[in-house]
Amino acid sequence: MADPPVSVGDVFGWTRSVEPEEVGAFGMLVGDLAQHHQTQGNQPLVVHGLLLVGLVSQLAAQFHFIGHEFSATFHAPAFCGRELTARMVVAELRPVGALGWSSRLQCDVVGPGGQLLLTGSAVGVIPLNRPPSPDRLLGEET
Questions:
Q1: Residue 2 located in a structural domain
Q2: Average model confidence (pLDDT) for the chain?
Q3: Cβ-count burial 78-114 (b if 16+ within 10 Å, e if not)
Q4: pLDDT for the residue numbered 46
Q5: Which of 42, 84, 92, 98 is the most buried (most CB within 10 A)?
Q6: Residue 138: is it exposed, middle or buried by C-beta count within 10 angstroms (0-12/13-18/19+)?
Q7: Assigned domain for 137 exists
Q8: CA distances from residue 3 to 32, 62, 127, 130, 134 in whole angstroms, order as listed
Q9: With contact defined as beta carbons under 8 Å apart, do 35 and 41 qualify?
Q10: Which is more confident, 51 or 130?
Q11: Whole-angstrom Cα distance, residue 104 to residue 122?
């Protein structure tokens, strides 16, 4: 069996902000136009939780992770225009024959001042014989 494209302890990350246009487009796509996701005077615009999870998932896409279970806990809201930092760590990795490697990933997202916004974990498979993707992150790699 070939070596996996990642190792236990590998860390992937990005730092970026989410813009109001992204929240608007996501809201239209999924039909979540709740008041706190729409501009209202000087009130900060709240990023959809699932949009934030989707942005975190791009980290695992670099090594073609196929998830079958994801759990997230939201600790505080993320607001548009504020710097967010996401981190994903390969926590477990074991070969599963011709499929590749079963893996468990841990993630977190922090906001300004290191405020914890989201923690999560994912379980899935990293397929055999897939090279790592070129860097296609939306934010800067950390």
A1: no
A2: 88
A3: bbbeeebbbbbbbbebeeeeeebbebbbebbbbbeee
A4: 94
A5: 84
A6: exposed
A7: yes
A8: 42, 16, 11, 11, 18
A9: no
A10: 51
A11: 6
Place of tokens 């923690």: 119
Which residues contact residue 32 at a Cβ distance below 8 angstroms, ignoring those fewer than 6 apart?
26, 48
Q: What is the tens place of the pLDDT at every residue in 26-70?
A: 999 988 888 888 877 888 899 999 999 998 999 999 999 999 999
Q: What percent of the chain has pLDDT over 70?
A: 89
Query: What three-state secondary structure class fits 24?
Result: helix
If DSSP codes are grouped into helix, strand and coil, which group holds residue 126?
A: strand
Q: Is residue 116 a part of any domain in this protein?
A: yes
d(CA 127, CA 100): 4
Give pTM, 2 decimals.
0.83
CA-to-CA separations, 45 to 79, 81, 113, in angstroms, rounded: 6, 9, 18
**Any domain includes 26:** yes
Among 23-27, 36-40, 106-110, 136-140, the range of highest mean pLDDT: 106-110
For the domain that residue 112 is a member of, what is the CATH number?
A: 3.10.129.10
